[in-house]
Amino acid sequence: MTVEASVEETVKKIAARIIRKPDIVFSPDTTFKDFGADSLDIVQILVAVEDTYDIELDDDELQNITDTAGFLAYIERKIAEKGQK
Amino acid sequence: MSLKGKIALVTGGSRGIGRAITLRLASEGADVVINFFRKRSTAESAAEAVREMGVDAHIIKANLAEPEKIERMFTEIKDTFGRLDILVNNAASGVARSAMDLKPDAWDWTMNINARAALLCAQQAAALMKQGGVIVNISSLGSRMVSPMYTAVGVSKAALEALNRYLAAELAGQGIRVNAVSAAAVETEAMKLYTSDPNIPKPMVTSTPAGRMVQPEDIADTVAFLCSEEAVMIRGQVIVVDGGVSLTSMSPTQTGERGENDAST
């Protein structure tokens, strides 16, 4: 299993647990709101991802991300940046 | 009003009203522990500002919705300082929904951070205040007046103010003074976010008898006073800092409220 796949599966599990929807798909055509997430769900997803990977997700940067695929790519980038420090 | 040598914890102390309180207590000589939720850089900026005043600053990340994170925060305070003198329960969060649209998760989130965390922090703090201390709870006028979309926060602040009285009575014997500061129409980023919702009226400066919006520093000044020896006989009170807006006949819905929008802290 590649690191990228592992991150996708982990983040998918986190999001699915919080939104209570098992069929989360990361794609450029979907947003978390499409799966019924509200603002509280999104904050809780961010917190859980940050705690899981010990990273900090920047709210200003996140505002530019409009879809779930972009969100996953952003998390993977933050994990990679942490690994380089 | 010297707090020299005191050790203070300000929850949510890295921005907005919390940051103003952090800096105000530091200006009176207190070493400050700054609790933050997510953004470390903001907390470090506040800590840097504290250290420039010649006192110590320590930052601790803790999600106050999680009891074990609160416990861990106080363990770190105990290990680092050995005691605590001042606790400011400032951190707040909320989901902007009307009463009819409020879901159980949103209610729980708001109550857990705004009221339950204050109780858990007070319990932990009291154990570190063997020589006495001060607890100040930050509330808002939403505890007693209605503002649009403010149900969860307003109810949590009402709970906090009741808790304020119980803590004041129970902890007095331990030499711990407890009071609250109720803020309204405070100019913060959180207020701007709350009033950015088109359903929520903008705060009307002209309706405030004092003639201006309340600034975070106004809240911080009152907190600092309550932490001082000059306030020793004030117990279990809620000091309203609102420029007089609650005195007017203007509808509360036209005055706006300090609050948090959409699960932010």
- Total discrete domains of chain A: 1
- CATH class group of chain B: Alpha Beta
From the spread of the alpha carbons, the general shape of chain A counts as globular
* Assembly type: heterodimer
What does the main sheet of chain B amount to?
7 strands, parallel
Quick one: CATH superfamily of chain B? NAD(P)-binding Rossmann-like Domain
Shape of chain B: globular
Mean pLDDT of chain B, rounded to whole units?
90
Count interface residues per chain for the largest interface.
A-B, 14 and 13 residues
CATH level 3 topology of chain A: Non-ribosomal Peptide Synthetase Peptidyl Carrier Protein, Chain A
Provide the CATH top-level class of chain A. Answer: Mainly Alpha
Order of helices and strands of chain A: HHHH
Secondary structure class of chain A reads: mainly alpha
In the CATH hierarchy, what is the superfamily of chain A? Answer: ACP-like
Number of strands of chain A: 0
- Poorly predicted tracts of residues of chain B: 251-265
**Class computed from helices, strands and strand pairing of chain B:** alpha/beta
Strand content of chain B: 5-15%
Distance between the termini of chain B: 30 Å
